[in-house]
Design brief:
The structure is a single chain. The chain is α+β, with helices and mostly antiparallel strands and about 150 residues long. It has one domain: 3-Layer(bab) Sandwich (minor pseudopilin epsh fold). The chain has one helix and eight strands, in the order H-E-E-E-E-E-E-E-E. The protein has one helix at about 10-60, and strands at about 65-70, 75-80, 85-90, 95-100, 105-110, 120-125, 130-140, 145. The longest helix is centred in the N-terminal third of the chain and has 52 residues, at about 10-60. It is rod-shaped. The relative contact order is 0.16. It is a single-pass membrane protein. This is Prepilin-type N-terminal cleavage/methylation domain-containing protein. Keywords: Cell outer membrane, Membrane, Periplasm, Transmembrane, Transmembrane helix. It is found in: Cell outer membrane; Periplasm.
Length: about 150
């Protein structure tokens, strides 16, 4: 009589490998979706912080400030007085500004940091069209609402 050998059969090993492959695929897609959402959140934080900084700087320094989207919406320029800096959003994030009459820019006029009674909404989009977020600029006060 043969003794029973211990170990796993080839079929058992294949089943375990298939299960591990399915779990790895699910985790990969969840990870990439979370990564895209994080990129969008980072872009919203950058833009809203710079809008608040532009408003505050215009009021404190007495210089006009302006934030203007780049032509393709992949970033923006921050202008205070004569100094200008360009900020690029993380890969896959784009922005637009409505209404169209704003010509893709928000200007804060010194000394009161007002926007000239113009309200606007920056809409940021991720690679996945369902990933969007908005930043509103309120009328005369120029207050930034996320």
């Amino acid at each position: 009589m043969r003794e029973k050998e211990s170990g796993f059969t080839l079929l058992e090993l294949l089943i375990v490998m298939v299960i591990i492959g399915i779990l790895a695929t699910i985790l990969f897609f969840n990870f990439t979706a979370q990564f895209q959402k994080t990129r969008l959140r980072n872009a919203v934080t950058m833009l809203s912080s710079d809008l608040e900084r532009a408003r505050s700087a215009s009021w404190r320094s007495g210089q006009n400030t302006k934030i203007q989207l780049l032509g393709n919406g992949s970033g923006y320029t921050y202008q205070q007085g004569v100094s200008t800096s360009t900020v690029v959003f993380p890969d896959g994030v784009t922005a637009s500004l409505a209404p169209a009459s704003l010509a893709n820019s928000i200007s804060y006029t010194a000394p009161f940091a007002d926007t000239g009674a113009i309200s606007g909404t920056f809409t940021l989009r991720g690679v996945n069209p369902s990933y969007t977020d908005a930043i509103r600029i309120i009328g005369v006060t120029g207050k930034v609402i996320r």
